[in-house]
Automatic annotation (TrEMBL), chains A, B:
UniProt keyword Cell membrane, yes or no: no
Taxonomy, superkingdom: Bacteria
Entry keywords, A to Z: DNA-binding, Transcription, Transcription regulation
Cross-referenced SUPFAM superfamilies: Winged helix' DNA-binding domain (SSF46785)
Gene3D superfamilies (UniProt xref): Winged helix-like DNA-binding domain superfamily/Winged helix DNA-binding domain
Protein name (database record): HTH arsR-type domain-containing protein
The keyword Glycoprotein belongs to this UniProt entry's keyword annotation: no
SMART domains: HTH_ARSR (SM00418)
Amino acid sequence: MSNQDACTPGSSPPPLLDADEAAALAAAFKAVGDPTRLRLLHLIAAHDGGEACVCDLTAAFDLAGPTISHHLRVLREAGLVTGDRRGTWIYYRVRPDALAALSRVLLMEGVPA
Amino acid sequence: MSNQDACTPGSSPPPLLDADEAAALAAAFKAVGDPTRLRLLHLIAAHDGGEACVCDLTAAFDLAGPTISHHLRVLREAGLVTGDRRGTWIYYRVRPDALAALSRVLLMEGVPA
DNA sequence: ATCCTGATTCGACACCCGTCTACCTTCATT
DNA sequence: AATGAAGGTAGACGGGTGTCGAATCAGGAT
């Protein structure tokens, strides 16, 4: 099937990114693959102290409250943000470690050639 | 609506990532937000000379040929890979500059706080 | 206790996306 | 020119996703 001698001679690359790992990483990238969620991430990170409450985030979009809440949940379940309640408001902040991990994947760290 | 004095006092953040820019970047991230496409990117980058022909890529997945072709088109239209025909085969290679640009977005480069 | 507000959850709808089979295009070889 | 293979295109099907309105939950204030 793979005519190894004619197509790319002498190359038999290892998986290097197995299906499970690729699925987990792709899920995180899919969370960022939405304009609203991408803007949410940057709005949160740009706020004072690196945290923002939902009311400020909702005010920045022409979207209904439940929609923002849905996007925040997607980001939360992807491990990209954390949200904790302090009194009446819920404050969200980004997880720089998670974003850095995704960044490394894009830079092909650990890829031979 | 945005009770600025009670929620996060003294913060009026600029857009910092307008809707158009966010849409363009999100489209690129969405292209990476699929396990098959993420593995395709790494497979291409890991091949000798940083390029791989479609026959090798197709052989690495349990997917039909047209499906791989579809994913390659998504990656190509997102500006993440380039493909040029040399004789019978079409060789794909990644665009490191595009991936680096996405990487910078995740690292929140240019975000104040 | 009651009410009000911030935020999430629940259903529902329209739309997009990944996958396939069948067919077409392009190139090399005979 | 004709055949065969590599790769792409077209159309269709099933499941996933963004969006909303209405209902619900959680805290603070009256």
